[in-house]
Records
---
Amino acid sequence: MAAGRSQGQDSGEGAAAVVARDVTMDFGTGKPAVDAVSFRLEQGRFLTILGPSGSGKTTLLRMIAGFDRPTRGQIMVGGKPVDAAPPHRRSVGMVFQKLALFPHMTAAENVAFPLKMRRFNPAGIAGRVRQFLDLVKLDGYGDRRVNALSGGQQQRVAIARALVFEPELLLLDEPLAALDRKLREEMQLEFRRIQHELGVTTINVTHDQREALVVSDEIIVMDGGRIQQQARPVALYREPANTFVAGFLGVSTFLQGVAAEGA
Ligand SMILES: Nc1ncnc2c1ncn2[C@@H]1O[C@H](COP(=O)(O)OP(=O)(O)OP(=O)(O)O)[C@@H](O)[C@H]1O
Ligand SMILES: [Mg+2]
């Protein structure tokens, strides 16, 4: 099933899935939206970028996707600079908050779209579409128009569409934010299940601390465009690097200053 790899990669064994070096995005507003961010993400891992509104999460994700070019610094995906290939050839699947599905097309047509863009063998498309609709538990819904599906079902179509060409990297920018809590929690676990099943490296953006702690292999906490901490969920929770991380995660028992007897 490796046909979806868009290029013969020379990434080789051991290349990190994503490497960001000193990545800065300055929109000229006086303060960079993303400020000297460096991190490394190994293949097959599920990373969450967690931070409050305006902390630079979407800006960082858009640069990883290759939509925007950093003012400074470099991003490598699969061992290659992210802008080495044109967008439709990049091996990156994306699901955003606004799903950008084609509402008048059927679920199956939506999922087939990236395969057509990538000139997959037409004979194989229907079977592959069915396989990925199965994966997101939408078997039997292929002929349904997207605007006749529920919100959660539409999310699943978007996931299938992002994954059907087997990207090296899956980017999720708060795709669940519009859903009610119960459905959101179900879908969070779905993402995790599918990610495990396919082994695709995933970067998930959220400002939901609970989601981050439940679904991630590792978490990057951002504030003011800067990485405050990168760690596994348990380490983050047990040993927050600073008062921002502790406060944002709701670790309520951190102590500050020096205890003074009788104070
Ligand atoms: N095109 C732009 N031009 C100027 N400033 C921008 C632009 N895009 C984003 N910003 C600013 O950059 C900062 C980071 O924005 P970004 O969208 O990355 O935040 P975020 O962490 O995704 O927030 P949210 O959780 O609200 O989605 C904000 O201060 C925002 O106003
Ligand atoms: Mg955002």
---
Amino acid sequence: MCWLDKKSLETMKKLRDEYNISTFLETGTFKGINAKVHSYNFKEVLTCDIKEEYLTDARKRLEPYKNVHVFAKSSPTFITDFIEQYKKDGRTDIVFMFLDAHFYDPNLPPEEKWVVINELKVLKGFKNAVLCLHDFDAQGLGHCTYDGVDLGWPLVKEDIIKVNPDFNFYTNKKEFCEIYDENTIKELPGIDLDEDTLSNIKYTHSTERLTYRGFLYATPTPLDLNKYSLIALDRNAEKA
Ligand SMILES: C[S@@+](CC[C@H](N)C(=O)[O-])C[C@H]1O[C@@H](n2cnc3c(N)ncnc32)[C@H](O)[C@@H]1O
């Protein structure tokens, strides 16, 4: 759960300020805890999921948060619809896109297995975005692996560069992770220690691989790394 990594939340807020971002778009709502946390950080939060059971829980949790909008849509459709409206509205602002609709389904055909790849395909040419891919194979940190394939640079490289050929890429590393526990997380606005939240914390702390998760960030301009707990990723690298 990315909201358990204090440093990654700080990075997202710095990127928000650097690019004057109002909209946080998330794919993969799950229980809505991340959307709730970011409702305190961004003017508007848009999030989508396809599982009715999760959507019901998330809507209940997010009901008081009027700046959060939950969509029952598959993420490529959600992103396509968002971009269409963004263009209709004549917007030029940068949008933070948190791509986290990772869910292993053995029944999906190979071309549908990685939702994130289909998200990147529909994002092709949408340059006004900062992208953040969670559960990414960065510096050996915890990440998704489906049927022996890692969610890593070789998998996403081709499609992410097509979103914006000028993108700059960054990852975290273990020394840059600072993980909340049941006590320290109380300081985080938007966190109530309800049953779902406690069970997410317990799950995340259950193994090192689940605790320390990798992130990939793509930004439209280079970042000053004196200000960020990130390392640059060379786009020609074999691996992040
Ligand atoms: C890793 S969880 C998201 C966690 C959440 N962002 C958080 O930080 O708490 C992945 C979610 O993606 C959802 N999902 C899977 N395929 C999807 C799709 N095509 N479109 C939208 N959501 C999808 C799953 O139902 C699941 O709730």
